[in-house]
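Practice problem 4.
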């Protein structure tokens, strides 16, 4: 039994030979196992790479980035290690890697960073990797290549764009080639949740040095991979020991840039193939022929020290000129075909939303609104005719998530018409969600964003004087990792390093796994949700800490919960605190839920007495 389980679904199961250029969509779903509890997790190594260039002076980006880093420091244990690098046009190691024992001193070192000159992201990434993996080659390099050049050593890079004035294409390239995630935050204070989510992901890894390749045969004319960066090159000549699936049988190989898998993660890869079935002429009229569509090759190691394992997933399709037999075959795989149809619709929705946001950013409000409305209606119509079994699938949750963001984006176009910043913010949010949703509703990328939103909501709802770091949810496994913050064009990127498996968790015993959730019987797809105004998000946040606790408890115990990312500046203009579309969430055991700190009745009474005494002291001073 493979360590990573997989299933294969396709948009069609049997095709005739008399067609040319047949489009076949193949959906590969990979499920990681649940982490085995251990007694103690291994140490974590974190490197914070802070951009102190002039652009960080705007909107308090640097102070909030420092605050987020200090919260992260509070999450580290004494056995963990930390390093700090600051950069503008020069790179300075402010703190060599050291045990995180004296947290207050480390936070003072971090707080001492001052605004400087220009941004030099490439050299900053190289310096961080030197600290993690030893010397690297010097010289001019593309930023994306720098981010990805140490993937074999277990170092990954995620990127966080802060504000509106960064280069999102560069930031996405860092994340895609670095095997990490791309995030967009409107306000720098939201970095608190993002860094917390990234740290938790680093503690939940089930694979390291993950690599995925697709080997294309002559029967496939072209390849398109949704949601992942790819590199295509000629297939390597085969050796004698490579057997019947040797590389010489393939035209080229497509490397799919893939991050490592987390505990119980369900990740999807949607590949669109253009197939030539004429190469599979039936040798016997009464028999269907199996036509190879290539091989998906998955390589990984379970720990940093363990050997590389390989899983080969053969892809194929039946070629049959007997129409009755062909239809019977496709009918037998109706559920599989329906799942792929829903996944394709979600992928096409990502592309449509991106077009709509491009029109919106250019000021073409009506064109943007029309694209959003047309696609929202298509998804509503599709859901109304969807078979009942689909309501138990991740694809159904993805369509729900898509419909909600299309609806909220359309509702926001009127306000965005005269607000350039809001249009830019919506465009960046759209790019972030496209990448996250393309990997699947239960992918670590999509769930990390949900976790970050939860944490930020708890953190920002507290009075500033009480914003003490929340305890890190106990991870299911341990690893050695490192993260860095770097910030090209007012962005931030994370680098994760070598991992080792570990750790227990008692918080997740009563939570529902994705597999358990999808096996439950659920009602038929509901009607389209009513329109939700963005202003409701701000109102919900102002209802107090007690309601927030109730919402989080509901999130843990129900099978479906609505999530909306937090607004981090209630006293600013609405356009500045626009939250990304809400997310329909099913709980995952490896995505530990963030809880606000609990107080006993005695603690509450003591807090009230202290507040009353402080008030009396203040009045007494005023009278004197």
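Answer key:
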């Amino acid at each position: 039994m493979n360590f990573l389980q997989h299933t294969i679904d396709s948009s069609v199961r049997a095709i005739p030979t008399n067609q040319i250029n047949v489009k076949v969509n193949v959906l590969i779903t990979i499920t990681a196992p649940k982490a085995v509890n251990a007694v103690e997790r291994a140490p974590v190594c974190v490197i914070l790479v802070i951009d102190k260039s002039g652009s960080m002076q705007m909107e308090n980006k640097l102070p909030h980035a420092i605050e987020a880093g200090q919260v992260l420091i509070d999450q580290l244990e004494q056995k963990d290690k930390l390093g700090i690098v600051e950069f503008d046009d020069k790179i300075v190691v402010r703190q060599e890697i050291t045990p995180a024992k004296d947290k207050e001193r480390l936070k003072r070192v971090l707080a001492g960073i001052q605004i400087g000159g220009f941004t030099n992201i490439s050299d900053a990434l190289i310096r961080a990797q030197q600290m993690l993996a030893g010397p690297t080659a010097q010289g001019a390099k593309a930023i994306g290549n720098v981010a990805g050049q140490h993937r074999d050593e277990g170092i990954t890079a995620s990127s966080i764009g802060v504000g509106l004035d960064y280069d999102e294409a560069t930031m996405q390239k860092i994340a895609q080639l670095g095997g990490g995630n791309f995030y967009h935050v409107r306000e720098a204070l939201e970095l608190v949740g993002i860094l917390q989510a990234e740290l938790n992901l680093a503690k939940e890894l089930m694979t390291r040095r993950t690599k995925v390749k697709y080997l294309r045969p002559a029967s496939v004319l072209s390849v398109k991979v949704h949601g992942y960066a790819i590199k295509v090159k000629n297939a390597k000549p085969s050796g004698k020991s490579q057997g019947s699936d040797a590389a010489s049988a393939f035209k080229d190989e497509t490397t799919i840039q893939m991050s490592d898998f987390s505990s119980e993660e369900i990740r999807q890869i949607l590949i669109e193939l253009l197939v030539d079935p004429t190469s599979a002429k039936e040798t016997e009229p009464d028999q269907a022929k199996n036509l190879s569509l290539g091989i998906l090759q998955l390589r990984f190691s379970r720990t940093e020290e363990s050997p590389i394992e390989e899983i080969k997933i053969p892809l194929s399709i039946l070629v049959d000129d007997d129409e009755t037999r062909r239809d019977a075959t496709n009918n037998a795989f109706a559920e599989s075909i329906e799942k792929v149809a829903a996944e394709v619709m979600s992928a096409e929705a990502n592309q449509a939303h991106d077009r709509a946001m491009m029109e919106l950013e250019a000021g073409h409000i009506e064109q943007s609104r029309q694209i959003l409305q047309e696609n929202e209606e298509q998804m509503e119509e599709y859901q109304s005719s969807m078979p009942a079994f689909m309501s138990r699938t991740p694809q159904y949750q993805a369509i729900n998530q898509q419909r909600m963001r299309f609806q909220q984006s359309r509702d926001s176009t009127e306000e965005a018409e005269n607000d350039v910043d809001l249009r830019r913010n919506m465009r960046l949010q759209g790019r972030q969600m496209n990448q996250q949703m393309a990997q699947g509703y239960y992918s670590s990328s999509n769930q990390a964003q949900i976790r970050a939103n939860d944490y930020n909501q708890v953190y920002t709802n507290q009075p500033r004087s009480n914003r003490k770091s929340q305890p890190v949810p106990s991870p299911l496994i341990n690893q050695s990792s490192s993260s860095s913050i770097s910030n090209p064009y007012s962005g931030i990127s994370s680098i994760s390093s070598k991992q080792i498996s570990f750790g227990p968790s008692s918080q997740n015993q009563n939570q529902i796994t994705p597999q358990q959730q999808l096996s439950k019987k659920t009602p038929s797809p509901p009607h389209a949700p009513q329109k939700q105004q963005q202003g409701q998000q701000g109102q919900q946040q102002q209802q107090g800490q007690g309601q927030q606790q109730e919402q989080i408890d509901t999130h843990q115990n129900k099978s479906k919960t609505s999530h909306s990312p937090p607004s981090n500046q209630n006293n600013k203009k609405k356009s500045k605190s626009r939250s990304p579309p809400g997310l329909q969430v099913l709980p995952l055991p490896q995505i530990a839920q963030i809880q606000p700190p609990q107080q006993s009745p005695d603690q509450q009474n003591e807090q009230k007495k202290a507040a009353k005494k402080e008030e009396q002291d203040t009045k007494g001073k005023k009278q004197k």
